[in-house]
Write a structure and sequence with these properties.
This protein is of the alpha/beta class. The chain contains 13 helices and 12 strands.
């Protein structure tokens, strides 16, 4: 037997595994590194988050990724080069973090890496005859494995598409395993660049579980800030948006897209919700000149209404439920204020109440998916989510 496969077989049978979960989102703020102890699999999964950090990306990293991100006309050579380079940069960050934590790479069973999304193309968006859903994450798993010496699982989204999904969001699988609770309807809301949520019914009926994108979370707000406020990457504490006035005609134009009327589950990305989309909405509103503050106030409310209206639709507007939030958007006080106003009978918490650092949650979920890749059996969720395990396995030698 190949020694790598023998080692993987041994790891897969361990009752407890030490797994590093990696998440690098479209906001490009940094690499989330979560050191997790995972026990069991499927519904018997338990996770103990041991250590967590976010290593900020250098300016060069951000600029390189932005040169190809969500760009239909990206330089193909640059895509090829960055696929390797990003993995090598991530490997350096992992090894430096392990050194800081005084942990040997030999003590890590596997790395589970999300990679860096550069383009997400569900069929609903590209609408090209004869072509299906597609997505692309770079930061090659083989390079991660070789540079760190740790078995690496990556490229999770491709199996989801191959089995009939849209490649996103994937949170439903980990959310169901970790956070379902009898007699409490839960919404696991993650507000990243794109906002998504998983609905977990209190009756624990797996066929009622589903996960969907709702539309923009931070992506439009971040892009606007970066364009008009040099040196800033996001609207810290909503300082800009709070000074503005919500423009109803612009808000209505922003919400006037078929995506918001399409059925759940659905996915989308900055390929649609970008500065070009904003400019089209400004033109459609009939008012060509708004202040920066008014635009940010309106974009903030746009994200909130898209989230709230999707949750109301998904829950039929009747059931009592608790929202557990995570992701960068949960730190935006104005966005959270709008959500609480739009969903007045809802209990709001964050995942710290469930013993998971909300900033670490996405990285933890990929650790769970990595665990499932080698030890799980696949679980069919509701709304046609495929019964699969996900991830491609790369060996260090």
């Amino acid at each position: 037997m190949n020694s790598n496969i023998e080692q993987l077989y041994y790891i897969a049978q361990k009752s407890s595994k030490t797994i590093i979960g990696l998440m690098s989102g479209t906001s490009l703020d940094g690499l989330d590194i979560a050191l997790c102890h995972c026990e069991g699999n499927g519904l018997n999964t338990t996770v103990n988050l041991q250590l967590f950090t976010t290593l900020p990306y250098a300016q060069k990293f951000k600029l390189e990724v932005k040169s190809i991100f969500s760009n239909r006309h990206a330089d193909l050579e640059k895509v090829c080069i960055l696929n390797e380079w990003i993995a090598e940069e991530h490997a350096k960050m992992i090894l430096a973090t392990l050194a800081d934590w005084n942990i040997s790479p030999n003590n890590i069973d596997i790395i589970a890496s999300h990679g860096q999304t550069i383009y997400h193309a569900p069929k609903r968006l590209h609408q090209l005859e004869g072509f299906n859903n597609a997505t692309l994450q770079i930061g090659d798993g083989d390079h991660l494995a070789v540079k760190t010496g740790i078995i690496t699982i990556s490229d999770f989204r491709q199996k989801h598409i191959a089995a009939g999904g849209e490649g996103a969001p994937l949170a439903a699988y980990g959310d169901y395993f970790l956070f379902s609770k009898k007699n409490e309807n839960r919404i696991m809301l993650n507000i990243g660049g794109i906002a998504n949520f998983t609905y977990l019914p209190g009756n624990l009926e797996v066929q009622q579980v589903f996960c969907t994108d709702t539309g923009p979370g931070n992506t439009l707000m971040d892009a606007y800030i970066q364009q008009h406020f040099p040196g800033k990457y996001f609207d810290e504490h909503a300082n800009v948006a709070i000074k503005g006035k919500i423009q109803a005609t612009l808000l209505n134009a922003l919400k006037n897209h078929p995506f918001f009327k399409s059925a759940f589950p659905k996915t989308i990305g900055p390929e649609l919700f970008n500065l070009h989309y904003l400019q089209q909405s400004i033109n459609a509103s009939g008012t060509p000149h708004y202040t920066h503050e008014d635009i940010m106030a309106t974009l903030n409310k746009f994200s909130a209404e898209a989230i709230a209206e999707a949750i109301v639709q998904a829950t039929s507007g009747e059931k009592k439920y608790t929202i557990y939030s995570s992701g960068g958007g949960m730190h935006n006080p104005l966005l959270m204020h709008h959500l609480k106003t739009l969903l007045p009978n809802t209990t709001f918490k964050n995942t710290q109440a469930l013993n998971i650092n909300p900033d670490a949650k996405e990285a933890v979920l990929f650790a769970v998916l990595g665990n499932e890749c080698i030890s799980g059996k696949g679980l069919a969720l509701g709304n046609g989510q495929p019964a699969i395990t996900m991830g491609k396995i790369s060996f260090p030698n």
